[in-house]
Amino acid sequence: AKDVVRLLRVLGVESAHLVGLSLGGMVALQLALDYPMAVAGLVLADTMPGLPPELAAMGREAIAFIENNPMRAVAQARITNAFSPAVNPDVRDYFIDQV
Prior knowledge:
With about 100 residues, the protein is of the alpha+beta class. Helix content is about 55%, strand content about 15%. It has 5 helices and 2 strands. It has helices at about 1-10, 25-35, 55-70, 70-80, 90-99, and strands spanning about 15-20, 40-45. Strands 1-2 form a two-stranded parallel ribbon. Helix 4 (about 70-80) crosses helix 5.
């Protein structure tokens, strides 16, 4: 959330309409809580306000993976896990490239 608000400031954006999907929704919600004046509107999709305590270890592992790998590796892991093995590999690769 701090990185996003810093980016907004560098871009000269006083407030923005934010859309957060999945983990991005958690980031957008945290930004809205920490920096309410920076948020003109908020759309949260397929997200939750945080992880329940029993999933905290899994959350830390996911964050560590994201922080310690290039975006291509993150996209490949997440998209591959999200699709059935029956999905055409070209379709899966297209989405990995888009991310």
